[in-house]
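Batch manifest, entry 17 of 40.
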Amino acid sequence: MRHLILSAALILAAAAGASAEGKVKAKTPGQAVREYLVVKGPAGWSAEEYSNAEGADPVVRFQSLSDAVVIRLYGAPGSDYPKAESFMAGPGATEAGAAPVDAGSVVVAGKKLALLKRRFPIVQADPHRPTPGRSLMGTELYCLLPLKDGRYAVLAYRRETPVPDMDRKGEKAWEAFLKTVRPKMK
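Output type: structure tokens
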């Protein structure tokens, strides 16, 4: 009887240990993005990561003042945008429902991709007071990079101010960032 109790205790302890070890720690949004892409953010820019669609759409964002480089990964089960077509029809790709502007092309990881441009409203005033005139608008340049498993990345440069960057520091940082982007094939 004593051996039976000891065996049962050992089995329960092993099962408890296995379930504690077997628990998969939830991936951070950055880890989820790095499963599909190798990237290097602009030097000296702050990094932030978060998810949309209950974790299905991870985002990594690098920022310096009014400039941001953003990586959004879509196409996972539960994604807000399971296909590139659904993203292109949504608010993240359009300007108040209007199609984005063709801004040429860009090469990412040896692939020539369409470069698109859109404007988006910027909230800079007190949200509790009426704002005179039209909304201030920022600009975004972006491209879509197809990845494995039907997923795709939206790589974007955002200028979150209506003031132009005469030196193009933000755009130059984004162009340098795009040269670091490599899809993982496995």
